[in-house]
Input
Amino acid sequence: NHIIVPNGIEIPNKVKTSFSKDGIKCIFVGRIEPYQKGLDLLIDACKPIKGMLKEKNCHIHICGPDRENKLKKLISQVHLNGLDDYFSFSDGVYGEEKKQLILDSDVFLIPSRFEGHPMALIEALSLGLPCVATTGSNMREQIEKSNSGWTANNNADSITNALIKMINSSDNYYEISKNAIELAMTFEWKKIALNNHLLFQSVLDGRNNK
Output
């Protein structure tokens, strides 16, 4: 028997209220760790749809600390695939600066091969960003069930298909944004605390009845 306590969030006082009218701004926030975070898969996934990225003015911003000096190789992969016009990189940001950066974007990307319970994804959902998430994000089922984004398997072809769906769904971003916020609210700290209090109490009650 076990009890899993998920990560929690404070519901923000400011959420996404408008989306870009002249393009699609996608963002990834996290460590520059290409394998775990699936950033190599994301780059490979974009190669077959360069024409669509250009037509829809879709840009991907990779934001995070490069603690293991892996950014140079990632930038090289972007260049070799001819994607320089569609990717940009910056160092990690935190607190209110990170929140504003996410709010200024349209779609959150999490192409991870594996995660625990990703705080960046929950935070992005709470701010109202539709998300592209892989199975490795550990939240694929919730994203699909709540219609708060688009999902993919842990491979480049599947991510390509998810990106195509994301680009073609721009007219529905407002509705998906509302769904994202509703999903995030299930991870609000007060709800998590109450749920776990009840679970722990049921364990104690079960022991006391033996």
Notes: The chain has a mean pLDDT of 93. The radius of gyration is 18 Å.
